[in-house]
Write a structure and sequence with these properties.
Length: 186
């Protein structure tokens, strides 16, 4: 049981919010977005979604409750973030990031609402990895390596099967590529 608690803690470390933070920080440090864009993206795609982690305090070790609240908090954060990025006339890269998170979130929510448990964890790594690959090529693709420990953790905890993890990965990659084409490239 203690081993599972340690694994669960590691799943939080490589979850949507820290991965989004790291991705947005890398993009900012590469001077591809302004400070204003950085703070708006960080707020709506990392900081506000982090509030879902507080469910862990109320329902410790209850993956299902944390999962449902996480999807809800993401919906309440991602869409306003996209709208704000659009209204503030931020650059294409910020629009790409916001749109990719929204498309991925919508597709994951629909798939999960239809009764299939596609991995949000896989998507939260594969989407940003795809963003960084589009922006930086091979160097950016190194973030995909986070899928290895994440898949081990989520599958060994029996949160997901291999195919559920692969499905979440696939959804995020396709959604992110779609977002790239919708913004018209860079």
């Amino acid at each position: 049981m203690k081993e599972n608690k340690i694994k669960r803690i590691f799943t939080f470390i490589i979850s949507q919010q820290p991965v989004a933070f790291l991705t947005i920080l890398i993009i900012r440090l590469s001077n591809l977005i302004s400070n204003e864009e950085f703070w708006v993206l960080l707020l709506f795609f990392s900081i506000i979604p982090s509030f879902s982690l507080f469910t862990f305090l109320k329902y410790p070790w209850d993956f299902q409750k944390e999962r449902h609240i996480s999807f809800l908090v993401n919906w309440l954060s991602f869409l306003p973030g996209l709208i704000l990025v659009y209204l503030l006339h931020f650059g294409k890269i910020s629009l790409f990031i916001a749109l990719a998170y929204n498309i991925t979130g919508i597709v994951l929510s629909v798939v999960n609402a239809l009764g299939y448990k596609a991995s949000g964890h896989a998507a939260s790594i594969a989407g940003p990895s795809t963003m960084l690959t589009i922006l930086f090529g091979l160097k950016g693709s190194l973030m995909y390596l986070l899928l290895l420990p994440a898949s081990y953790l989520k599958i060994s905890l029996k949160d997901h099967t291999v195919i559920q993890f692969v499905t979440g990965t696939f959804i995020a990659i396709v959604s992110t590529i779609l977002a790239y084409y919708l913004v018209g490239g860079f």
